[in-house]
Specification:
46% of the residues lie in helices and 14% in strands. It is globular, with a radius of gyration of 17 Å. It has one domain: NAD(P)-binding Rossmann-like Domain (Rossmann fold, 3-Layer(aba) Sandwich). Strands 3-2-1-4-5-6-7 form a 7-stranded parallel β-sheet, with helices on both faces. The C terminus is likely disordered. With 235 residues, the chain is of the alpha/beta class.
């Protein structure tokens, strides 16, 4: 298994939910974590627990995204892992979506992934190592009512990661994609911990364990896709 000790990992959307669980777990495995999110107060709390670096940023802003990579390199002197987890969602009939809602989902879910990857890939290629893990969704592989905007953004994010995987593999860089089903988080303004969610949803820690699994796979093992099934909590 690959040792995560002292590897430097950027985790976006680290203030809550999947990102927070991932940041905490990677820190427990010895990684040095760069916690990225827009909410500075919650981010500082996570960074304190991980003994890592907090960088408040909007991943959909090109300058912010580049600054995250630059600050991580300045602070730690190296960069090994990028977990693209930041995401937003809204669900409604197509005719009830506003253009603003559509743009925000594509800005965060797709453009945010693109910009962070763009910021770290040159460094990863130069050192001939690095691992990008994208937290997509099972709706990147299926469609459902009220999911036109969110589903489209996740299909697009999946395409970005799949194409990038082919571009960087010859340079010794890995790209893995995780497709969780329903996860019990604050996503879509919901509150975690309801009795129903306990029965039907994954926990953020389940997804974090999947991230750990792909990161710790031996160098010669490539895990391109990992689907998480919420009803059975198996993967």
């Amino acid at each position: 298994m690959t040792d995560l000790t002292d590897q430097v990992a950027i985790v976006t959307g680290a203030s809550r939910g999947i990102g927070r669980a991932t940041a905490l777990l990677l820190a427990m495995q010895g990684a040095k974590v760069v916690c990225v999110a827009r909410s500075a107060d919650e981010l500082e709390e996570v960074a304190h627990k991980t003994r890592g670096l907090a960088i408040p940023a909007d991943v959909s802003d090109a300058d912010d995204a580049q600054n995250v990579a630059d600050e991580a390199l300045r602070h730690f002197g190296r960069l090994d892992i990028l977990v693209c987890n930041a995401g937003v969602g809204s669900f409604n009939l197509l005719e009830h979506f506003s253009a603003t809602e559509w743009d925000r989902m594509f800005d965060v879910n797709v453009k945010g992934t693109f910009l962070l990857c763009k910021a770290v890939v040159p460094h990863f290629k130069a050192q001939r190592s690095g691992h990008i893990v994208g937290i997509a969704s099972d709706v990147a592989r299926r469609t459902f009512e009220h999911g036109t905007a969110y589903g489209a953004s996740k299909f697009a994010q999946d395409a970005v990661l799949a194409s990038l995987r082919k571009e960087v593999r010859p340079h010794g860089v890995k790209v893995s994609t995780i497709y969780p089903g329903l996860v019990d988080t604050y996503f879509n303004d919901s509150l975690p911990g309801s009795p129903d969610a306990e029965k039907t949803h994954l926990k953020p820690s389940d997804v974090a364990q999947a991230v750990r699994y792909v990161l710790e796979a031996p160098a010669h093992v490539v895990v391109d896709e990992l689907m998480l099934h919420p009803l059975t909590q198996e993967w």
